[in-house]
Amino acid sequence: MSQTLRPSHWSDAYIRFLQTRGYLWQLSPLSRPLTAADVQKALSAELTSPTQASAVAYERSLNLITCLQHEGLRTGSLLIGAQSDERYVDDRQDKHYAGVHRLHLGVQLRPWLQLYNVMVADSRLDNQPDYLGIQQNGFAGYTEQAFLRLYRDGLEFKIGRDFLRLGPGHDAALFISDHSRPLDQVMLSFRQPWFIYQFFVATLDPSRYMAAGAVDRQNRYLSGHRLEVRPWRFLSAALQEAVIYGGMGAGMNLAYCNPFAFFHAEQMNGPDPANTLGSVQLAVKPARNWLFYADLLIDDLQVENSGPGDREPAEWGYLLGVDWSDPFWLRGLDLFAEYTAVANRTYNTVNPWEKWLHRRLPLGHFLGNDFTRLLSGLSYWPVSAWRLSITYEHRRKGEGRIEAEFDEPWLDLPKGENYHEPFPFGVVESLDLLTLDLSWQPRWGFCVFGHARHTRASNWSHQSGAERSFWQGQAGVSLDLFKPIRMP
Asked: How are beta strands 446-458 and 4-5 bridged, if at all?
């Protein structure tokens, strides 16, 4: 047993690299976080000896095992670790230093019982106008992970703060992503070789919204459950549902704390309002070097036509992606493409405390709603030390926002007239982004990286006819140091 690995942990690139080549499929390709112990166990069960077809994957797996051993918790030991990410950022006309520093403290009290804590100081939050916390001397600090975890015979219980990402996207997820802060949650899950069932309840930031003509504190809660099945070795499918509810003075609703209740049915039967979302996800490998994945998000669909409210446009999102590994016999090369579309008003609702936001950031896709996005590129990783990636991205972003007031223009139409609006809505900002990333990691705990991006924009900031073209870049180094201490 070992600690969970945040979705942005360096190991996730290794896991995706191996899964696109048909390895580690006993680990979910649809959800994060994974644990270091589960990754090490899966690696030990596969790639035990190299072949011509798996030589690159075998080398990558050996390096991953070696690196994870430095960070793993051991029974009866205290783990102390420090991670530092230092970079110089050239963001158009703004040049500045950015640093992220993490302190890890973990203890494995029993093979089935663990405590883990990660505290972070992040200078980047100083440049985020929507950040809710206090900034001092250019840094803002908070507890990133702090949880107690019990695991035995496939049954897991976790209470505390940890990451949660549910979705197969290349760098984003539709249902729940890691774009916002980790959730304060209670998680219960049961895992078997061919299925996973997860249930979680969490509290969201109790921000202040306008209600009854005055600004007051609104309590906000999130509940969700999902079933992921693996009927075939290279096929994973998940069905999931989540709900955000709350209000002024509202407490947790036990109906939404029931792991086996259908949340949408509870919402429809009232009396209290809530915002439910559903999702179907799929990842499949029809051939050794091909990976296809998809995510369909359903927010609101109108199935009746009994009143003005039924003219509301459907709110939905979908994501389709493909990975082609080792094309043309070039070992270590990946070609990928992904298309995402999220309709206007998706994640949004009339009651502001039910919006799909956490600490003013989207809980789902980082672009929010009312957009289309095409992402394509290549990643070349011939040896563990060197990695190069080039991506092209085309975005079309409408004027819709999750944080905006939920407008209902269809209510003003004459009886019998249907409502239609363009997608994306309003003055559409169009972005073309070309990105180059290069990293060098000669050993565990040390990595040098560089990033350059060119942006070409039309209708910049939704101003009709406004054009922009500019470069951005950053370069830096990341350092890791972990030390296990045997407890008496």
From this structure: unpaired
C-alpha span between 477 and 87 (Å, rounded): 6
Contacts of 372 (CB under 8 A, 6+ apart): 339, 340, 341, 395, 396, 424
pLDDT digit string, tens, across residues 452-483: 999 999 999 999 999 999 999 999 999 999 99
Domains of the chain: 4-486 (2.40.160.130)
Answer for the pair 85, 100: CB distance below 8 angstroms, yes or no. Answer: yes
> pLDDT tens across 346-378, in order?
999 999 899 999 998 999 999 999 999 999 999
Which residue blocks in 245-333 are alpha helix, DSSP H?
263-268
Q: Tell me, what's the pLDDT at 46? A: 81
Q: Are 126 and 140 in contact (CB under 8 A)?
A: yes
First to last CA, the chain: 20
Q: Is residue 199 classed as helix, strand or coil in its secondary structure?
A: strand
Lowest mean pLDDT among 61-65, 178-182, 414-418: 414-418
Dihedral angle, C-alpha 189, 204, 276, 168, nearest 10 °:
-60
Closest by CA to 106, choosing from 143, 126, 71, 79, is 79
Judge whether 348 and 300 are in contact, CB under 8 Å: no
Task: Return d(Cα 17, Cα 24) in angstroms, integer.
Answer: 10
State the CB neighbour count (10 A cutoff) for residue 395: 20
Q: State the residue for tokens 């990695």.
A: 387
Q: 69 phi and psi, to 5 degrees?
A: -60, -25
Helix (H, G, I), strand (E, B) or coil at 74: coil
Residue 427, pLDDT > 90, answer yes
pTM: 0.94
- How does the average pLDDT of the chain come out, rounded? 92
Nearest to 284 by CA among 337, 328, 229, 333: 229
Strands (E), 384-445: 386-397, 429-443
- Would you say 352 and 210 are in contact if contact means Cβ atoms under 8 Å apart? yes
φ, ψ at 398 (rounded to 5°): -80, -175
Query: Which are the contacts of 114, defined by CB distance < 8 A and separation ≥ 6?
Result: 1, 2, 3, 73, 106, 107, 108, 148, 149, 150, 151
